[in-house]
Design brief:
Blueprint (H helix, E strand, L loop, with lengths): L1 H12 L12 E3 L2 E6 L5 E12 L5 E12 L2 H11 L3 E3 L5 E5 H4 L4 H9 L8 E5 L3 H6 L11 H14 L8 H8 L7 E7 L4 E10 L2 E7 L2 H9 L8 E5 L11 E17 L5 E15 L8 H29 L6 H8 L1 H6 L2 H4 L4 E12 L5
Parallel strand pairs: 1-5, 2-6, 6-7, 7-8, 13-14
Antiparallel strand pairs: 2-3, 3-4, 8-9, 9-10, 11-12, 12-13
Helix pairs in contact: 4-7, 8-9
């Protein structure tokens, strides 16, 4: 009797499989996108990779595209489910793409469903597409035939851009708290579908939950430098430091940033006047210099001077663009809120931010120029 009671108590502790997902009855979405119709309804587009056996014995990937329209994201998702025999599953999604017009509206309304669903892939990348998201997801890119589908191809393209510092590192989870921070904004990768490949145009800038503009590559590399965040692989950029050399290629130098030390100072005077300054001390190696003449310390110092001048100018251009768009991704407002709260309480930050004195400077030190002396 005691054994039976013990067995019964153990059985009561078993949870069973109430929330199981049977994979052979599921289609895994690896890329999703959102657009709006003219009357404000939401167009949801999803890509599901399916393997097709070939005569060579190798599998090729064919991306099945599904589209549905609804008043809300969840409603359009329900309609998508009715289009297929299996159940669509978003838990392995790798990227969400927002169409340009959709990004200029409140994007939280499109992302809310992901934050409420415990099975959502919150580490999925998020990006803005020039034009419509559906055009990007429906495009038959050459590389997607060899990779594991559209989602992996788009995600890896963004990862590559992140590693080269062309775009900041963001995903669905990281943008959520910033969307509701009155003192800081954010930026997302900005994509464009070409004939056979995806092109990273630069970064899409946001104010609150709405896209307000863009910074194109290669200036987006300067934007990423100004964030001060560490990048693990490479921060490469080519700059024109001279004007009159012939042929034109002799006016350029390509550098790889090895170390980028950032100081960020926000000052508020007793009268309440706000100023901000970003200073970068940047150590670089020269990876290409067609003019070649790097054998003398004088020439190296001259290149350091020209690079500092050029990068400072580019950094100021980025900041001027941010203020013109009223986007504060560096968090000047957050600094004012944290350290000068009485001043912050009196401000209308959207009106004040474009008018503050905000400057940048970059001091470049060349620490290497290759094996050729």
């Amino acid at each position: 009797m005691k054994k039976k009671l013990s067995l019964l108590s153990v059985l009561l502790l078993l949870t069973g499989c109430w929330d199981q997902n049977v994979l052979n009855k599921t289609k895994l979405i690896t890329a999703g996108g959102f657009d709006y119709t003219k009357d404000g309804k939401i167009i949801t587009t999803a890509s599901v990779p399916e393997a097709n056996a070939m005569e060579s014995g190798k599998d090729s990937i064919e991306n099945q595209i599904y589209t549905a329209t609804g008043t809300t994201v969840r409603q359009s998702r329900f309609k998508l489910d009715r289009e297929v025999s299996e159940r669509l599953d978003i838990s392995k999604n790798q990227i969400i793409i927002l169409g340009e017009d959709a990004a200029k509206e409140d994007i939280y309304q499109l992302l809310d469903v992901f934050y409420r669903d415990p099975k959502s892939a919150l580490n999925a990348k998020i990006a803005v597409a020039k034009g419509k998201a559906s055009d990007v997801i429906s495009k038959k890119f050459e590389e997607t035939k060899k990779a594991a589908g559209l989602g992996e191809y788009l995600r890896d393209s963004i990862l590559s851009a992140e590693e080269s510092s062309a775009v900041p590192r963001e995903n669905i989870q990281t943008v959520c708290p910033v969307m509701f921070d009155p003192g800081q904004d954010f930026a997302l990768p900005y994509l464009e579908a070409l004939k056979r490949t995806i092109h990273i145009r630069g970064v899409a800038l946001f104010r609150g939950q709405k896209m307000v503009g863009e910074i194109k590559e290669p200036l987006s590399v300067t934007y990423t430098m100004l964030t001060g965040k560490k990048h693990e692989i490479a921060m490469n950029t080519t700059k024109k430091i001279y004007k009159n050399k012939k042929p034109a290629r002799l006016n350029y130098v390509t550098i790889k940033v090895k170390k980028n030390k950032r100081s960020f100072l926000v000052d508020v005077t007793p009268e309440g006047k706000i100023s901000a300054k970003i200073k970068l001390k940047t150590k670089v190696t020269i990876t290409e210099y067609p003019s070649d003449n790097l054998s003398t310390p004088t020439e190296v110092r001259n290149i350091e001077k020209q690079l500092s001048k050029k990068l400072t100018k580019d950094a100021q251009t980025v900041i001027d663009k941010l203020q013109a768009m009223n986007s504060d991704p560096f968090g000047v407002g957050r600094q004012v809120m944290a350290f000068h709260y009485p001043v912050w309480e009196r401000l209308n930050w959207e009106e004040e931010y474009p008018k503050i004195d905000f400057t940048a400077s970059v001091d470049v030190e060349v620490i290497g120029h290759g094996i050729i002396e």
